[in-house]
Amino acid sequence: MNSTGGQTDGLEVALHHHFRSYEPDPRFLAQLRRTLLPSAADVRSSTRPPWHPQPHLRWRYAAAAIVLVLLAAIAAIGPTKVLAQIEQWIGYVPGLGEINLVGTRALVHPVSRTEGDITFSVVEFVASPDQTLVKIHVTGLPADASLSYLRVLVQWEHGNGLRMSKYQANPSYPPCPSEGCPAVRQPDGYDLQFAYEPLPADIQQIQLTFHPWGIVPGTSLSETWSLEIPLEPVTAEKPQSFVQPAYSPRSAVDTHFGIKMTVDRVFADTSRTLIVTSILVPTAPNFPSPQGASLSTDTGHMYEPFLFSNDLDLNPRPVQTMPPSAAGEATLTAWPSRWQFEAVNNQASRLTFTVDSIALAYRAQSDFEIELSKDPTVGTVIPLDVSLNIEGFYVHFNQALVVMATSSTQWSSNRVKALEFGIDSPLEVDGRKLTSIDLSHRYGQDYVDPYIDQKSGLTIGRLSLNPAVIRNGRMTISVDTVVLELRGPWVLTWDVPREAR
Questions:
Q1: 420 near 399, Cβ under 8 Å?
Q2: Helix (H, G, I), strand (E, B) or coil at 197
Q3: Domain 102-174+187-233 adopts which CATH fold?
Q4: How do residues 442-461 score in pLDDT, each as one tens digit?
Q5: Which CATH class is domain 246-353+488-500?
Q6: What is the mean pLDDT of residues 326-331?
Q7: Which residue of 66, 194, 234, 347 pairs with 134 in a disulfide if CB–CB is 3.0 to 4.6 A?
Q8: pTM of the predicted model as reported, rounded to 2 decimal places
């Protein structure tokens, strides 16, 4: 970027000093050149008489020129690095999720109200342009208190309040002692999370109002409690409790069996390291479940995750359908997951996230019939010759056995006759292992405990024997889902940006 005026040179120096990036990506430059430079058709059409902008429109062209200068600067210093820096505007609030910090206001400091032994503490209040998120911690409640119908209103002077969209309450537990957690842990309070529509941009002070009747003993139906909540803009200098910084390691990608895993975002501070990943799978399988995850550093440290969350946050990252990037390629579904580790060694300049295997659920949707009497005796063996082909994995049922099994409902548990199915096909082929077969109960059977092979770990569903669904000596069996574990490992390695250490 050349200039004789000195201003753009100064901008370039400042950007280089701030980002300290790599050389520009040639593909990005080529794409940028195609986007910005006129085509031959545009050049031919430029022979029309010149048009002079009106004075009141000139500022728009000046702004456009500045944007082009910034685009050229971004291209020169490396778009990947700039993207990593921009994503420092994304923060993470434990229990609430990822927040876009641009234009966000947050609680200045926690606010509490105590009545007797009961304390309501507003731990987080985050008003982003997209939604308003609130986290409250409650202690001292009696054992029979119910939080199911708790309503918390967000109000302000001359305001009508906000509509609530989500609410959840979870017990909180004290830290385990050094000798380990007891078998039965008692909660020391509750964490309440609320999601509301966006708060108007000009509001800097709100009231949280709630009705304690039915929760706090001795309160009346009309009684209300209110807490004044001061807000202030979130800036890099005042990140509140957000985990910072956030960056995107674009090189952290690995693929096996056509299943691609990426590290999308990393949050790190002195208390934790949070890794946000996506698993891209074809549309056929569902619910990818990573197994055996770990994080290691180039300094020789290794960490095990102590929190894995797909949907525990109030605003989780959505499952997204990714259209084909080129003709003939498959449509993929991106399944997000979040991993939390202790803070990594601050001398580490390179991180490696490893997943040993990924379990995928495939919809089989296959029916077959077996022959049996209305009341077969326990121990009866029914020979079968039923084959399934699940994404190229061969499953063969060779028998059904009449057994006694436990049938559990919400209210009772009984021993009933059930069918237990056996297979004689290999459980693992070419790095894919069969781990579970789920049978559908849509034909009127009760839920019974599945059969679990203690040696292989294979789980196969059982079906209760309901005489009503045995017609003309035949019973229909429906295979719903087959789970295959795909052996990796998926190994994702990236360099830690200097500003994130």
A1: no
A2: coil
A3: Immunoglobulin-like (2.60.40)
A4: 656 667 888 998 888 999 99
A5: mainly beta
A6: 80
A7: 194
A8: 0.71
One-character DSSP codes across 44-75: HHTTSPP----GGGHHHHHHHHHHHHHHHHHH
**152 and 208 in contact (C-beta within 8 Å)?**
yes
The two three-digit tokens of residue 412, written as one number = 């009772």
- What element of type H or E holds 481? strand 474-495
Q: Three-state secondary structure along 414-464?
A: EEEEEEEEEECCCCEECCEEEEEEEECCCCCCCEECCEECCCCCCEECCEE
Give the number of other Cβ atoms within 10 Å of residue 381's Cβ. 11
3-state secondary structure of 405: strand
What letter does residue 496 receive in the DSSP assignment? P
Q: What is the pLDDT of residue 157?
A: 82
User: How many distinct helices (H) and strands (E) make up the chain?
Assistant: 5, 30
Could you tell me the two tokens for 383? 């020979």
Give the chain's largest Cα–Cα span. 96
Beta bridge partners of 272: 342
Tokens of 51: 């048009």
Asked if 252 contacts 492 with a C-beta cutoff of 8 angstroms, the reply is yes
pLDDT digits (tens, 9 = 90+) for 143-174: 777 787 688 999 998 767 899 988 888 888 88
Assess contact for 418 and 460: CB atoms under 8 A: no
Residue that is written with structure tokens 């609680």 in the block: 107
User: What residue spans define the domains of the chain?
Assistant: 1-39+58-77, 102-174+187-233, 246-353+488-500, 362-487
- Sequence-separated (6 or more) residues with CB below 8 Å from residue 112: 119, 120, 121, 122, 227
How far apart are alpha carbons 393 and 125 in whole angstroms?
50
Three-state SS annotation for 5-34? CCHHHHHHHHHHHHHCCCCCCHHHHHHHHH
Residue 451: partners with Cβ closer than 8 Å, 6 or more residues away: 420, 421, 459, 460, 461, 462
Dihedral, 35, 36, 41, 44 alpha carbons, nearest 10: 180
Residue of higher predicted confidence among 266 and 85? 266
**Secondary structure of 279-324 as H, E, C letters:** EEEECCEEEEEEEEEEEEECCCCEECCCEEECCCCCCCCCCEEECC
If one counts every other C-beta atom within 10 angstroms of the C-beta of residue 481, the result is: 19
**ω before 94 within 30° of 0 (cis)?**
no
